């Protein structure tokens, strides 16, 4: 799940706030990292451009320099991208492109409620492990004239290789959790070939693991009923592993259970790079008002550190964030509070 | 939304219980129809076979005779199909096939909570209008060997024609509701061609309607955030129109909001035929125990009648079902009660 701890002299972090509230929450995550002091190597930040607004100004949503610069970084934090409100020729989502360019094949999204009492088990405590490079996100689409008007076709790609590596990631993550349960999310009752391959490939992993995954319980759920049960009995889930699009939908659904998308972090992880990213979007409705919830971005920074094997530093952040949520005094409007982004950040920093 | 009321002498209803609790709830729906008396034409029932169990016995999930017999019926009720627990060569879901064979292009799924007081507005009152013939359900899948193992590809088809007719259906349904709002569910920030076509085709409908849809408010939501907001603020939705797979997921998600999948009805509707179908599955875990909730099937019968223009009869059923739910005395275990299917049916019949 995490990289070897080659003792690093410094940590080079690419920062891509991109659009909307991405520009408000990424600076908060940065300041949290800076406040960690000697728990992590000396930080070096690299400011990088991408996003829909950049596209409208320059015609490019993801400049080649950004991709190249990221390759020189140890890790990165990404904010959020706006979606064009109508079809814009030549525009393609930079976050989807980055995941592919850097082969960040796993999108790891832990969704956990904060129990009132720190000793209690939260009622929601799951991780969505979303395949991040294929499914309908390969964006192979064609438009052709047909007998009765236009016809559009998209390809949904599922490979054995990608299914196996995301499955292994899910098993590894499950090994590190008390319940040690993996639930495969699929729709193989309709997509018997593509989702059939996804499901069977993951089912076959334990056998080839030389006993490593013997303690992991393997379950499965069809995606529609998985979402239904997620709302009704979220406690049945531990690690949910899903193809790209189902993972996208499920993680938003799970976020609704813990009070706000503004709380849910993620990392996009590959074998050599990790990029933190809050699960929320660019939120054009509240952009620029200083009331965006910085906690998802701050938690994404923690998750990124955890992935780089700085568990103690990550724990410090998570503990501080959980305290702020538990105390309930300094919260942004999405959580029913009236505090500003800055005030929430300060509350976290004080508890670090 | 509904067929011309060519005064029918009799109503020929195909019954396809199929698998699992389908066999327990379809008889309950039949008995409800039979209890309506002179509000509807003389009923004639035709028992028909289909399902996964039939497949395991005979090698056919949907016999040609069933399809032919349905073509002689005025309408039908379908129960539920079991999903094979592993890949079964040659098996393909009969419900998906039926929707296509009979060109039942719209899957209409009203999801409404029953307010405590009959005068109050329920907090959830929406209709999912799901395109029912294409998207990934065209089941064009191929498996090929690749450089790093197997590769599977599925085609997602979205046509202008199907998008327009489902869009029109959504507008028509909205016209008949107090809020008159249609929300297009899509993911055109990633699938700019396929979902772009779906979205744009529906956006273009009002212009070509000669004013018919002027009073309908048109909104849109990206599918992941649509599911999030469905949980957080279901009252923002009235009519949700969606491509096939999103519609499948959204309707299950919405069902979670009203207490049980066992309450949510649907019809599969085409221009010449309508087939009621509870949204729930075959529920192998409770099959044969006589505790399946018959209300979704009973409501599906009402919805079918409504579609055939027997609104008064449909209203009688819906009112009786709502009373049973509101009273809360006779409910199956999925709703926290301890009554049997038969008892719930009797309670409905008594209130008809
Ligand atoms: C913005 C969009 C392309 C993206 C996705 O669909 O992956 C977002 O919803 C997410 O979950 O990160
Ligand atoms: C059983 C399955 C093929 C079906 C579907 O996916 O359409 C079911 O989930 C439904 O919603 O009717």
TrEMBL record, chains A, B:
**Signal peptide boundaries:** none
Regions crossing the membrane? none
Query: What Pfam families does this protein map onto?
Result: Iso_dh
- Asked if the Swiss-Prot or TrEMBL record annotates the protein with the keyword S-adenosyl-L-methionine, the reply is no
Give start and end of each Isopropylmalate dehydrogenase-like domain.
Answer: 12-348
The record's listing under InterPro entries reads:
IsoCit/isopropylmalate_DH_CS, IsoPropMal-DH-like_dom
- From what superkingdom does this record's organism come? Eukaryota
Q: What PANTHER family does the record point to? A: DECARBOXYLATING DEHYDROGENASES-ISOCITRATE, ISOPROPYLMALATE, TARTRATE, HOMOISOCITRATE DEHYDROGENASE, MITOCHONDRIAL
Q: Which family does it belong to?
A: Belongs to the isocitrate and isopropylmalate dehydrogenases family.
Query: Mind listing the GO molecular function terms for this protein?
Result: homoisocitrate dehydrogenase activity; isocitrate dehydrogenase (NAD+) activity; magnesium ion binding; NAD binding
The protein's required cofactors: Mg(2+)
Under what name is this protein listed? Isopropylmalate dehydrogenase-like domain-containing protein
GO BP term, example: lysine biosynthetic process
Q: Does the keyword DNA-binding apply?
A: no
A single GO CC term for this protein reads:
mitochondrion
Keywords per UniProt = Magnesium, Metal-binding, NAD, Oxidoreductase
